[in-house]
Specification:
With 341 residues, this protein is α/β, with parallel strands linked by helices. It contains 13 helices and ten strands. It has a single domain (3-340), classed as NADP-dependent oxidoreductase domain (TIM Barrel). The strands form two sheets. An eight-stranded parallel beta sheet has the order 9-8-7-6-5-4-3-10. A two-stranded antiparallel sheet has the order 1-2. The longest helix is centred in the last third of the chain and has 16 residues, at 253-268.
Length: 341
Amino acid sequence: MEYRSLGNSGLKVPVLCLGAMTFGEGDEKSFMHKVGCDEKTSFAIMSRALERGAGFIDTADVYGPDGLSERIVGAWMTETKTRDRVVLATKFRFRMGEGPNSTGASRYRIVRAVEDSLRRLKTDRIDLYQIHMQDIETPEEETLRALDDLVHAGKVLYLGASNYAAYRLTDSQWISKSEHLHRFVSLQMQYSLMVRDLEREHVPVCKQFGLGVLPWSPLASGFLSGKYAKNQPPPQGVRLEKWKERFVDYDSDRGWRTLDAVKAIAAERQTTPAAVALAWLLAKPTVTSVIFGARTLEQLDDNLKAAEVKLGTEDVQRLDDASAFELGYPYKFIASVQKRW
């Protein structure tokens, strides 16, 4: 397994990160209801991933009722005594209780959220603590100062952001620099062959400030796994059968053209479509580690094959061309003028 530095930090992480959103069978109120796996399977998946070199686990307090995913990860680390072999990442921001202060990124919320996560994870520190989405109701400096205090207290080692607008991310980096605060070293965002919006502004910002990109949903909710066929409904039991609105987004000429290119390259390289889709991301600038989920050991093994796939420049270009997306204004205007002048 290849390791890379997380952004400009000294932390080394494997190029594949195990996402823990599917760990635990949530109740009917959970957005992961019927698309997760039980605790026993979760334990087996984490142990196999660690054996294969993917000792980087990403979870969040909101994954499952009452932090179910965090509790499962914590129980596994305790039972297997593997805490010091794992780079542990979790997130805060979304609602975890009743009342106006049970959500958001205020100092009040952060201080409570980190203690709750530490308790559920059964650990004394979080290696990468990430804000799950920017909070437009809280000044960025308040959030950053609270997070900086956690680093100084030793409860958190590194800081990351997720689901941030590019302007807010830039603002955050400059506040941290000017106020001498610990800054974000990573940005976790939705990024795949089907969702490339990040390339407009976020990727240039990450290059400028040295943030490592951690793509989530790299297989577009499973669309790029090769299980789907044009003019046919999603197979039973897959995520896109439940999340029908997402399937509609991918059920297009661009979607099927992209999937055909992924399958063709997979056949040429004698690997899986999932491995090719993940390897494409690993060939992209600023990407440090790709977060993938697994509900079974078979899915885990399928995704881990990506670490063995090194796409050539021509392969990457084929996939770029197949998944080309509308830049929109002003990006298309700038590109057209730049080519002429």
